[in-house]
Specification:
This protein is an alpha+beta fold and about 700 residues long. It is built from 15 helices and 25 strands. The chain is globular. The N and C termini lie far apart (about 50 Å). Bound molecules: zinc ion.
Length: about 700
């Protein structure tokens, strides 16, 4: 089936474009189309190319240096390679997703209207980026050949002056940069990032040239900043894109422009004008307070975290303390006052900021954490991990790696079905059917959808899975840091140019044992940093069987020594099942607990309860055993938690009810990983539930 999909994907491209291409053969190709340049040097091909960034402690490994070999992430990565990305390609290149059609129409290769939201170009670039990460490992030339054809069309769609956003190109009635809700800079950001990644992996410049032409257009347009453009940069991926382009080209104008998009915020009066009409203003887009003065995460969660991630990239180059201080404050605020136990962010679909601006899909008050109506857009959760990856590189503090891990294993993965072909946009922590009208709960869909009209999340998640091996390790000044665990091999050069080869064996996250073997390294001493998650208290590390002292959870364990080929570092993280409770100020989870084992948050779902049971009638018994059990045949192999819950039999029908002793019946059930919920048809689900102690 997978193979058919791949074939179909490229067939569709060949068949679909053949005649259209002929029609426009006269149209000039971009000059640089076939030009290639020398491959970038080692240490300059990271997902984030921070090798020469002066204010970064942990530098990227090159894309392709690490590959998942076995276990959890290897399975997910292979699904991305064989199903997620080819399937998404058929959607986006066909008439459902329409992403590619928009470029063809804008290029004059096809008749028709623009379809999809304003930001759909950006979603298409994300899919392209995901494809490149896969190519970096599997070297399937068909991927690059297909991208070359697409890039040619994108080049044709690009306007003479460098402008590139297909909805505006296709429509006659809207001028470029007339209203920020058209998301032009969002499309720009994903274009620049995707083109930089394409260049780093392939050495080709066909995509990069388009990005450069576009960035030059942006620079000329926005510098010096005209008054009517001050509020642009709505969904600010362009900051990350511009910094990455600066790193690729060394052209300082792009860094300056990136910084300008931060500096502009909060410098003008917050009133509606012709560039903002049709979408909430103020805190919604983080424009009420300058970033350097901000103390609270506000507004649309995706917008906020892309913005923070971009600012972290700028800091990596400029080292401006005020910027880092602000990012640290905002990280504290998000992580300790507005983040769900799954690493998800964006508590509500509609609401108000503490400064009373209207908010959509975003942050609300501190500790206000509804479960059922939590919005938690998949993109927002992914952006949280992107922000944390950058903060990890800046600070070297393992707490940021903990959040990456939390998102990756929970609120990121929940955005896609086990089969890899259906998607959630929002990721609530509880779902109830029946008496409650689903539509009124503002959480989009009762089950994952094979296509989302707003298609920002699926390619965002898929590119994250595709690039996850690039996040697994970082390079320290003299050594290597292990950020993520799972079976993999690493073959890279340390920052001093010496070669290093490692292999990691682990059944993480189902098992807490990790074994890292040195396959090749320099003879001089260097350090290995192992992230000991904050939850992994009591972790033990040995080298060739000899214990290493002072292993502290919530930090990197640092082992500096002369290494020899065959040295084995073993990490043993205790994987007991735990109850997690919220801060007393989170009213929504008072006297409720969630179940967590290692980095995995669990949930209980209808298929594991007697028929007709409402999830709100289930109570956890605090004194019953919580028994982990690996189930090979469930969701591709997961550890479930078996325990006895109590099911309440008397029903509460009124808004308020007189209390009598409830009738409770015991029931043995299995909790499943949260990310795997909603793969067995529609039903109810909850992460938190009330606890009863004997
Ligand atoms: Zn999204």
């Amino acid at each position: 089936m997978n193979k058919v999909l791949v074939t179909l994907g490229s067939f569709a491209l060949l068949l679909g474009c053949g005649s259209e291409m002929e029609n426009t053969a006269k149209k000039e190709k971009p000059e640089s189309d076939t030009r290639t340049i020398t491959m970038l040097k080692d240490n300059n091909r990271g997902i984030v190319n921070n090798t020469n960034s002066p204010h970064v402690k942990l530098k990227s490994i090159d894309i392709g240096d690490c590959r998942w070999t076995e276990g959890f992430w290897a399975d997910k990565w292979r699904t991305a390679e064989k199903v997620m990305i080819p399937y998404m390609g058929t959607l986006l290149k066909g008439d459902i997703g329409h992403g590619y059609n928009n470029f063809k129409i804008a290029a004059g290769l096809k008749e028709g209207e623009h379809k999809g939201f304003w930001w759909h170009d950006g979603d298409f670039y994300k899919w392209m980026e995901a494809s490149v990460y896969i190519y970096a490992i599997n070297k399937d030339e068909q991927i690059i050949n297909e991208l070359d054809e697409i890039i040619e069309v994108i080049g044709m769609a690009q306007q003479e002056d460098g402008y590139l956003s297909t909805p505006i190109i296709i429509r006659d009635d809207i001028k470029p940069f007339s209203n920020r809700r058209y998301h032009e800079l969002y499309n720009s950001g994903h274009l620049l990032t995707s083109a930089c990644i394409h260049h780093r992996v392939t050495g080709k410049t066909n995509f990069l040239d388009i990005a450069i032409k576009h960035a030059n257009y942006l620079y000329d347009l926005f510098t010096p900043i005209p008054d009517h453009l001050k509020r642009f940069g709505f969904n600010q991926t362009q900051i990350m894109g511009l910094v990455e382009l600066y790193r690729t080209t060394q052209d300082k104008r792009y860094l300056a422009l990136a910084e300008q998009f931060i500096n502009m915020r909060g410098t003008y009066k917050i009133d509606d004008d012709e560039t903002t009409k049709g979408y909430p203003i103020g805190d919604m887009v983080q424009e009420r307070v300058p970033l350097r003065e901000e103390t609270e995460a506000v507004g649309h969660a995706v917008l906020a975290l892309y913005y923070y991630a971009g600012a972290a990239d700028v800091y990596a180059e400029t080292g401006e303390k005020a910027l880092l201080d602000a990012l640290d404050r905002l990280w504290e605020n998000v992580t300790h006052k507005k983040m769900y136990v799954t690493g998800a962010v964006g508590q509500t679909h509609y609401g108000r900021s503490s400064r009373l601006d209207k908010i959509e899909e975003g942050f609300i008050d501190e500790y206000m954490m509804p479960n059922m109506t939590a919005y938690n857009e998949t993109c927002a959760n992914i952006c949280n991990s992107m922000f944390n990856y950058r903060m990890l590189t800046l600070s070297g503090d393992s707490k940021h790696g903990d959040i990456m891990e939390l998102v990756l294993h929970n609120s990121g993965l929940s955005g896609i079905g086990i089969e890899g072909k259906d998607y959630y946009y929002s990721n609530p922590l509880r779902k109830i059917d029946g008496a409650l009208d689903y539509e009124n709960m503002n959480v989009e869909f009762p089950e994952r959808q094979p296509y989302l009209k707003c298609f920002c999340c699926p390619p965002n998640l898929v590119r994250t899975i595709a690039k996850s091996p690039g996040w697994a390790y970082s390079k320290s000044e003299n050594g290597i840091a292990v950020n993520l665990y799972g079976g993999n091999t690493l073959e890279t050069t340390l920052l001093d140019g010496s070669e290093i080869k490692l292999s990691q064996k682990s059944d993480y996250p189902w098992d807490g044992a990790v074994q890292i073997t040195i396959e090749e390294s320099k003879s001089e001493p260097f350090e290995m940093l192992l992230r000991i998650p904050a939850w992994a208290k009591g972790s033990k590390v040995t080298i060739n069987g000899q214990p290493v002292e002072n292993i502290v959870a919530g930090s990197f364990a640092r082992i500096e020594r002369k290494w020899s080929v065959g040295d084995v570092v073993s990490l043993e993280m205790p994987m007991e099942v735990k109850f997690i409770e919220g801060h007393p100020r989170i009213e929504e989870v008072r006297n409720q607990v969630a179940i967590k084992r290692g980095p995995i948050v669990y949930c209980l779902e209808s298929p594991d309860l007697p028929k007709e049971t409402t999830i709100t009638d289930v109570y956890i018994s605090g004194s019953k055993e919580l028994k982990p059990k690996f189930q090979t045949d469930l969701f591709g192999g997961v550890t479930t938690i078996e325990t006895e819950v109590m099911i309440r039999k008397d029903t509460l029908t009124d808004m308020y009810n007189e209390v009598s002793k409830p009738i409770l019946e015991p029931f043995r059930t299995n909790f499943i990983p949260y990310y795997a919920w909603s793969n067995r048809g529609q039903g109810e689900m909850t992460v938190f539930m009330p606890i009863i102690w004997d």
